[in-house]
Amino acid sequence: MQNQLTLPNSICRSEPAPMFVVDTTFVLFFLAVEMGSTLGRLDFGTALSAVTLMAFVAVPYLLPSETEKPSFLPWVAGRAAVAALALLLGVAFSFAVGTALPESFRFLPMSLLIVAAAVSSIVQAYVIIRNRLAR
């Protein structure tokens, strides 16, 4: 008599934790902080930043993912809330630069945006290019 243990496939598979476009959220945050810190100037750069910010709110939903995507409207509402909070932080940051913070801190949001964008690009390239095992 043999004892046999059977497990459903969902238990046997090791699935990664759902990390649906978390890296682009950092880019969204720093882009909104940068836009908030330059919001006093209404020029072509601010308009271009606004269009880019709107794109970063909605377009990452279309990125490939192995996990199940959440419904669109609550997901966009969460990202819009992140962008709005970051815009307010950017405005507060612009008021603090030169008074509470040194003038050289004015470039910090753009520097962090560049780093976050580079890391996000590398992560997205890895997700798209990596080898996928045949099932």
Describe this structure in words.
This protein has five helices and no strands. By secondary structure, the chain is mainly alpha-helical. Helix 2 (22-37) packs antiparallel against helix 3.
Task: Give a brief rundown of this model.
With 135 residues, this protein is mostly helical.
How do the strands and helices of this protein lay out in sequence?
Layout: H1 9-12, H2 22-37, H3 44-58, H4 72-96, H5 108-129
Helix content: 55-70%
Low-confidence stretches: 11-18
- The total beta strand count reads 0
Judging from the principal axes of the Cα atoms, what is the shape? elongated
Relative strand content: under 5%
> Helix count, per DSSP?
5
Whole-Å distance between the termini?
33 Å
Largest sheet: none
List the defining traits of the structure above.
single chain; 135 residues; mainly alpha; 61% helix
